[in-house]
Write a structure and sequence with these properties.
Oligomer: single chain
Distance between the termini: 21 Å
Order of helices and strands: HHHHHH
Largest sheet: none
Shape: flat
């Protein structure tokens, strides 16, 4: 029975050891399917009970939020073990914090920054042409910085691990 449970869920909060790249990528694919299923359940079953019409923008995503809260620890532990496989410290995952906050609250942050800038932007400084405006790209700077700060972790996660033992132990 335990064989059908993915190893990252069996090792729910195990931060020691190493995780091979193939198992890590399969885990990320399974996480993606979990989130897609949670989003589908939200849209098909939860949203109509909350009074949303079909094709209406749904703001409350309860099942997705519950899935994210339940799966954040195995996601984090698998990333730490993956970094151990390429001989990097798991503390590099600290750079995931801004990325997670931007991904979860991103649309709200971008909307707030955009509204603040459009309401407080002096009319005399606004460009008169219909070309590219300063105000349109500024809200996306935090997202870009979050992605940039997390990019070394992404690159190391996709790098092939060493077959010989390293300071974090032998390969699984």
């Amino acid at each position: 029975m335990l064989k059908i449970i993915p190893p990252p869920l069996r090792n729910y909060a195990q931060f020691q050891g190493r995780m091979p790249r193939s198992r890590f990528l399969r885990w990320l694919g399974l996480l993606f399917l979990f989130y897609m299923l949670a989003g589908w359940i939200d849209l098909q079953f939860v949203a109509p009970t909350l009074g949303y019409l079909p094709n209406e923008d749904v703001k409350e995503q309860y099942v997705v939020t519950i899935a994210a809260l339940l799966l954040v620890t195995p996601w984090l532990s698998s990333h730490v073990r993956r970094l151990h496989d390429v001989n990097r410290s798991g503390w590099w995952m600290v750079f995931a914090i801004p990325m997670l906050l931007i991904l979860y609250f991103g649309s709200d942050i971008v909307s707030a920054i955009y509204l603040f800038l459009t309401e407080n932007y002096p009319a005399s400084l606004q460009p008169q042409s219909t070309g590219f405006m300063f105000v349109t790209w500024v809200p996306f700077v935090p997202t870009g910085l979050a992605v940039l700060s997390f990019s070394p972790v992404i690159l190391w996660s996709l790098k092939k691990g060493s077959k010989e033992p390293n300071r974090f132990g032998a390969q699984e």
